[in-house]
Amino acid sequence: MKKYILFSMILSLSTSLFLRAEATEGFYKDLFMDGGVGLNGMKTLPAADYLNYTWEFIAMNSVNPQNLIMVENDNDDNGVLLYPDGEPRFQLIFTNGGMSDEHGESLGQEGRERVRTFYYRGGSYTGACGGAYISTLDKDCYYKIWPGSMTQVGVAYSDVGGDIPANSPLLNYYDFGGDNYISTIVHHYGGYASTLPPGTEILLIHDKPGTGLDNQPNCWAYKDNDTTGRIVVISPHPENEFSGEKRDLAAAIFQYAIDGRAPPSTKGPLANGEIRIMNKSTNDNDPINTKIGDRQYHHFTIDLTGGATNLVVTLDGDDAFDLNLYLKKDTFAFASVADYADTTAGADKTIPVDTAAPGTWFVGVECATTVVAEEGPWYYEYSGQLEVLNGVEYTIKADWNLTGIYSNNGLNSGALVRLVVNVGRENIFIYVRSLQPYKIKIYDVKGRLCWEPKTSQTVEKYIWQPKSTGMYIVCLESGKDVLTKRFTVVK
Fold first, then answer.
1. What's the topology of domain 276-368+384-401?
2. Residue 467 CB: number of other CB atoms within 10 A?
3. What is residue 424's predicted lDDT score, i.e. its pLDDT?
């Protein structure tokens, strides 16, 4: 799937690491706020801004446009919350208050399933008032991700206090004045957790004497298992506050929820010399072989129990997209911690390791390409490379204990009819066939010129003896037509 790319793209290092949003690695953004049909259509979320989260919203009361975003559209089979393989695209969803039953019904079974998948595949869930109700088992049109029930109390347009239990995880984030109490939280027809299934944590208790709310759970959390996210919901409304303890309460809820998201998982091991093809789509229901989404990571493992020499990991994709390759021993290979990385422009990457220590090595593939997201009046509008929403196809391969020179082969193009790189025991053999005058050069991955021939350009065969191990790029240029070949030298 190699593409022909302009010369400048070959030499320029990818800027994706420097331009990326501040969302945690492996996610498109941190938070999505659902203010769809029947819900409060807020466009501000002060606690998210306070935490420097990257986030988006939907704020509309129209079913069809809502479901084009939340469920699927012509450019996105997965809905805004999910990657093509069903993994969460955001770390956290926050569901606004409002009419929970109206919202659940508007999403339909497929839309509600998107939220369930988001949670059960590791994304965390928060909501206030109606956003708490819809998480329960109480109605068929609810998400049913928290196996408990709520009781509504008809206290409208009022304030409630909140007592913080001494063991509440909220205290891990803020001290709330040191008195374990938060006053005057806005309350409007909320309720309390009337059943507490095993695993439910009470984070805050209502203080509202003379009402059915008093001394009942105000805010609670739940995590089904290690592969799900964490649910943290609240009956009143701290989410509109711009400062003080109530703003800190919303911020603590968001942080505790995100801290409970599932850890990353792998797509499985890579076998020596076997190509793994990642080309499945959402509807194939084959997540371990599905294409990669925007700013997503795919993780693989390599079992090198006895260690290895000349480990070479090769990524091959469509150069219309930027895919990055990382390698790390003993833990997941993210950009921030990788032992080895190839972040050159495009999608074709190679990492050579002369001697790999015994143990488990992790391979990380990152799709650095993403959409252009612009805030509109009712939601974020996407433009740019929309194809990335349905995923980018690629192949990944690991070879080890190689001898001689390892090479990736073959490209053809226009006037440049042929560029083939073959291997010998000590030399690289380059074969060229062109209908027009051409230039040929070899660069290393940092764009430094390593070799250019002194012979006439009419020569069709060149021999180059590499001086050191590493990855190199052969560039064959004729006018605007360019062919490139990557190869890796190991000893």
1. Jelly Rolls (2.60.120)
2. 9
3. 62
